[in-house]
Structures are given as C-alpha cells and as structure tokens.
Amino acid sequence: MPRRAKCRRVSFVPEINFFSPVGHHQICQDEVVLSVEEFEALRLKDYLNLEQEEAARQMHVSRQTYQRVLGEAHFKIADALTNGKGIRIQGGNFCLGDGYCRRRTRFLAYDESCQFEKETQKKDRSEAELGKIAITAAGGDPEANIDARFGRCSHFMLWDPQSSDFTAIENKGGEAAHGAGTGAAQLLLKNQAQVLITNKIGPKAFAALKSAGIKVFSASETETITGVLKKYLNNQLEQLNEPNN
C-alpha cells in the first residue's frame, strides 16, 4: 500500500482558480489541474524569487520534495501554454499556515497536529500563534523611531515572541534604483516575519506582502519601535487592507 503524502504548508488558497485560453473558437474542454501546493511552489520560486532551500523550508518539505513539486508544476504550465489547455488550481495535500488541514477538512485542534507541526504542538498556544513582527526603523535600535518608508527604510527591527528579543536587520536594498519595495518584502519573508508595522506602503510592496501572507499594520512615524510593539500587542493598531501611499 503506497504511503500517504505528507501535507505541505501553503500561505493561502487562491481565490481565482481557473484560467482559460482566449482566441479559441471552441469551449476549452482540456485542462490541467495544478494542486494548491504546486501553485505555492511556483509562487515562492518564480514570483517571490526565493532560493529553493528557503522555499522548501517555507513549505516544510525537503529540498528534493520541493524540486519534484516545482518540476511537476512547471510541466503542467508548459503543457497548458503549448497545447492551449485551461489551468485549474484545486486539490492536493496541504495545510494552511493558520492550522486548516485539507485532509481532515477542518481546523486542527490544539492538541493534534499535521505531520509537519509536531515541533509546535507542545508550545503555549499564544506563542505558537504569534509570529515574528517586523517594524520599519530609522536606526538599528529598539528606541529609534519608525521609518515612514517601507522599501527604503534604514533597518527593520524584528521582534521574536519566543525570546522577546529584537534583532536589527539592515535594509541593504533600500538604495536600489528600482524594486526596493519588493526586495524588502523578500527580506521579511526570508527572516520569517508574519507581521509588518510601518507608516506608509505602496501598492507593489503591499501586493508582494499580501501574496506572502504577511499582515500589514499602520503606525505613526513619531512612535518608537518599543512603543509601537506595545500598541500592537494590545490590539491598538489598524490593519491595512490596501496600500496607503
């Protein structure tokens, strides 16, 4: 009996899940089915431009498994483009980052876990649910003020709820002529941030963060890093649902 495939972690299930070729006189009857984890593999590598090792870590699979999933996704896309087939995204073996398991078709209880969640099942629930928080900073110090810019901020201060410590991350791509916002989004994803607190953010950077599953909150640029963090933990910051710059 073949072994059941392990669930792969994905950030979200795409709302638009079917693409059909145009310019065809007949209704598109042939289609390829891209699993949700194959879509996630494409998104991490080809859209967010992550290295395969980092992408595999995001999906909680080995590098070899990730390469296989990505290769299958590339073949299906090539087949659809070459032969004029539709592309449907559905099914697969995956779990969402918020604990929804497709195999069980429900959210996991706290005392159970998917096969890749064993390392978190014994943690305090509030700690397990609270991810790393990145704050745009005018300097590499927790007492610095927020930098109003996202892509061109001086530093990101990354707060880890497990240790309650800050880590200063220099934003070396802030001086780039183009793509500073998307580069900063990749930097946050690489450092496992799940929340961003900033003052202003543009549409391209916001779209990249949303695609990566990173929530964005707005705060005043007159606030200090520690002050803003306290407000976030007390649910006193506004979450952005669209860019504000």
Please provide a written account of the structure.
Strands 10-9-8-11-12-13 form a 6-stranded mixed beta sheet, sandwiched between helices. A 3-stranded mixed beta sheet has the order 2-4-3. A two-stranded parallel sheet has the order 1-5. Helix content is 31%, strand content 20%. The chain folds into 2 domains: 8-107, no CATH class; 130-239, 2-Layer Sandwich (Nucleotidyltransferase, domain 5), CATH 3.30.420.130. The chain is elongated, with a radius of gyration of 20 Å. The termini are far apart. β11, α6 (203-211) and β12 (215-218) form a beta-alpha-beta unit. The model is unreliable at 115-129 (pLDDT under 50). α1 packs antiparallel against α2 and α5 runs parallel beside α6 (203-211). The protein is of the alpha/beta class. The chain is built from 7 helices and 13 strands.
Principal-axis shape equals elongated
CATH class of the largest domain: Alpha Beta
| Radius of gyration from CA coordinates | 20 Å
Ends distance: 56 Å
Question: In total, how many beta strands?
Answer: 13
Total domain units:
2
The percentage of residues in β strands lies in: 15-25%
- Low-confidence runs: 115-129
What's the CATH topology label of the largest domain? Answer: Nucleotidyltransferase, domain 5
Task: Classify the secondary structure makeup into a structural class.
Answer: alpha/beta
Helix content: 25-40%
The count of helical stretches stands at 7
Mean pLDDT: 82
| CATH-level-2 architecture of the largest domain | 2-Layer Sandwich
